[in-house]
Amino acid sequence: LTNKGRLPCKYKVNLCDQLALYVIVLGCYHHHMFHFVGKILCHLEPCDAVDVDQAVKAAKLAFGHWSKMSGMERARIMIKAAHIIESRREEIAQMEVIDNGKSITEARLDVDSARLCIEYYAGLANTLAGQHVQLPGGSFAYTRREPLGVCAGIGAWNYPFQIAAWKSAPALACGNSMVFKPSPLTPVTAVMLAEIYAEAGAPESLFSVVQGGQETGSLLCHHPDVAKVSFTGSVPTGRKIMEMASKGVKPVTLELGGKSPLLIFQDSDLENAVRGALMANFLSQGQVCSNGTRVFVHENILPQFLEEVVKRTQRIEIGDPLLDNTRMGALVSQPHLDKVLSFVDQGATVLCGGEPFVPTDPKLRGGYYMTPCVLGECKDEMTCVREEIFGPVMSVLSFETEEEVLQRANDTTMGLAAGVFTRDVKRAHRVVENLKAGSCFINNYNITPVEVPFGGFKMSGIGRENGQVTIEYYSQLKTVFVEMGDVDSLF
Ligand SMILES: NC(=O)c1ccc[n+]([C@@H]2O[C@H](COP(=O)([O-])OP(=O)(O)OC[C@H]3O[C@@H](n4cnc5c(N)ncnc54)[C@H](O)[C@@H]3O)[C@@H](O)[C@H]2O)c1
Ligand SMILES: C[N+](C)(C)CCCC=O
């Protein structure tokens, strides 16, 4: 397929015997892969400066209409979009599996999270309001919460549909428009979201998609009509985004990487701690920003913990991600799989997994599968403990005291998430108070209800997604002074 026609075009892409998809693209994909079977889905080229300019101009026009609508009117369209997502849940989830390689069970939950996020911000859209302040002599001031304009969204490949929704929902609720660039590894489902907003009655190009990699992303960041950049991805790219945005003094939201700790104390409910550790490491083939990959276990319960965690890791069903009983699908690409595997043999003891996996089904043979891995006898200075692996590799470390484990848990430049398992309520709150991380879990891990803010400390990011506070990251406050008397001039 080639599309140098620039304007959105509709293609029918035959994915396999059972599945076909209509894709609307602005510009073209670049060797888009069908990850879990390792086949190329289609060849497309990235959007260039002309395409990006066209998309931003169209979004600016849409902003003109959308920002003048009342919160109630915007909410109505967003709620309709949420209903459409609900009715197309299975189709979107299947496409996410094909695009990303994760299991259908997880993809359905991602679609639900996207829908809930749009519903949640629709609920907030009609409550956005300013403040009235009485001043001397009958004069007064009031504040207006105003949108920023055209926002750019740039997404990572691990939660393609969810990321597009987590960014667009608060942006649109506040009255902005958005041009979104998905990762070139997972370009499809953001386009489905654009279709859905349009079908729900949003003004044309209110949410549109440009395809491409870093050049397209950089064109968006530098575009003079882009008012804000919201980015999800790695720390090195986040740094570049901030640099580019700084040229135009544009605000940024940065949702970046992590190397999060999970602390399991001696008094934990061991069954729940093991479940928590698995949830903290193996969702989405371990390709999760908030994963608690440094699992610190009290030395007195380490043997029981390891026995149980290894047993359950070995039981994880790997294979065709479109099947309901599969719990682990394929990683996103061959280079990424190679990188993840390279972290396995670096000094720690491999307790299970960490090898390429070849499914028995011949149609899956070209996919990028590996067995989930637990590393024991890990030391703080090991590469597997220090660097974000972004794959199904859990590093287990032993500790003796609370003070010691807190110091070791915080000894990282990242601070996205952290978790603690204990039955002692005082210890739980004392520990989270001292953990330097933006999203902390007590006796659970990796749940992200859309009503609560999510984001990182330190190099894991700036700003928050979800929750009420995110309104502040997609709007600006205007103060209006109103004089009811004469001007008291000094001149
Ligand atoms: N904190 C969070 O909420 C969160 C969520 C998901 C993923 N992540 C992080 O994302 C990373 C994995 O995702 P990835 O490999 O797609 O990240 P990445 O940084 O390589 O790419 C992310 C996006 O940025 C674009 N991009 C790359 N270089 C660019 C440039 N110079 N200018 C503009 N855009 C550019 C990419 O095309 C892609 O769309 C991990 O580090 C993970 O922890 C964070
Ligand atoms: C929904 N999860 C699993 C917490 C993922 C949040 C987004 C991070 O990659």
From TrEMBL:
<dbReference type="InterPro" id="IPR016162">
    <property type="entry name" value="Ald_DH_N"/>
</dbReference>
<feature type="active site">
    <location>
        <position position="255"/>
    </location>
</feature>
<protein>
    <submittedName>
        <fullName>Aldehyde dehydrogenase 9 family, member A1b</fullName>
    </submittedName>
</protein>
<dbReference type="InterPro" id="IPR015590">
    <property type="entry name" value="Aldehyde_DH_dom"/>
</dbReference>
<keyword id="KW-0520">NAD</keyword>
<comment type="subunit">
    <text>Homotetramer.</text>
</comment>
<dbReference type="InterPro" id="IPR029510">
    <property type="entry name" value="Ald_DH_CS_GLU"/>
</dbReference>
<dbReference type="InterPro" id="IPR016160">
    <property type="entry name" value="Ald_DH_CS_CYS"/>
</dbReference>
<dbReference type="InterPro" id="IPR016163">
    <property type="entry name" value="Ald_DH_C"/>
</dbReference>
<keyword id="KW-0560">Oxidoreductase</keyword>
<comment type="pathway">
    <text>Amine and polyamine biosynthesis; carnitine biosynthesis.</text>
</comment>
<comment type="function">
    <text>Converts gamma-trimethylaminobutyraldehyde into gamma-butyrobetaine with high efficiency (in vitro). Can catalyze the irreversible oxidation of a broad range of aldehydes to the corresponding acids in an NAD-dependent reaction, but with low efficiency.</text>
</comment>
<feature type="domain" description="Aldehyde dehydrogenase">
    <location>
        <begin position="38"/>
        <end position="480"/>
    </location>
</feature>
<dbReference type="Pfam" id="PF00171">
    <property type="entry name" value="Aldedh"/>
</dbReference>
<dbReference type="GO" id="GO:0005829">
    <property type="term" value="C:cytosol"/>
</dbReference>
<dbReference type="InterPro" id="IPR016161">
    <property type="entry name" value="Ald_DH/histidinol_DH"/>
</dbReference>
<dbReference type="GO" id="GO:0004029">
    <property type="term" value="F:aldehyde dehydrogenase (NAD+) activity"/>
</dbReference>
<keyword id="KW-0963">Cytoplasm</keyword>
<dbReference type="GO" id="GO:0047105">
    <property type="term" value="F:4-trimethylammoniobutyraldehyde dehydrogenase activity"/>
</dbReference>
<comment type="similarity">
    <text>Belongs to the aldehyde dehydrogenase family.</text>
</comment>
